[in-house]
């Protein structure tokens, strides 16, 4: 088990952001499922990405996609802590 107890998170209310105004993602022409998987890939088992843009189970761009990605990332973090 990791001895590092420093857990940092960021929660953003995009509806208050002056540039996005609550926007959502959509794939570019020619984008693939692998592109979303690449976007969702953790960095050195220290930085994890969740959100509807990182969902690759079929619900990207929706609240369901955001929830799916949160569940996926939760499992990735637990697996990382348990060295699985």
Q: How would you describe this structure to a colleague?
A:
The chain has 84 residues and is mostly helical. It has a domain at 33-83. The chain is 32% helix and 0% strand. The protein is built from two helices and no strands. It has helices at 33-40, 63-81. The mean pLDDT is 87.
User: Uncertain spans, ≥5 residues at pLDDT below 50?
Assistant: none
Number of helices: 2
Our measurement of the CA-to-CA distance between the termini, rounded to an integer number of angstroms, reads: 11 Å
* Outline type: globular
Percentage of residues assigned to helices: 25-40%
Radius of gyration: 14 Å
Strand proportion, as a percent range, falls in under 5%
Strand elements, count: 0
Properties at a glance:
single chain, 84 residues, mainly alpha, 2 helices, globular
Task: Give me a quick take on this structure.
The chain has a domain at 33-83.
How is the topology of this model organized?
Layout: H1 33-40, H2 63-81
């Amino acid at each position: 088990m990791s001895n590092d107890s420093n857990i940092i998170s960021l929660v953003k209310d995009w509806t208050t952001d002056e540039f996005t105004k609550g926007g959502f993602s959509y794939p570019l022409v020619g984008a693939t499922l692998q592109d979303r998987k690449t976007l969702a890939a953790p960095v050195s088992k220290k930085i994890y990405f969740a959100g509807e843009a990182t969902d690759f189970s079929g619900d990207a761009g929706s609240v369901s996609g955001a929830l799916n990605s949160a569940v996926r990332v939760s499992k990735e973090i637990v697996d990382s802590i348990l060295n699985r």
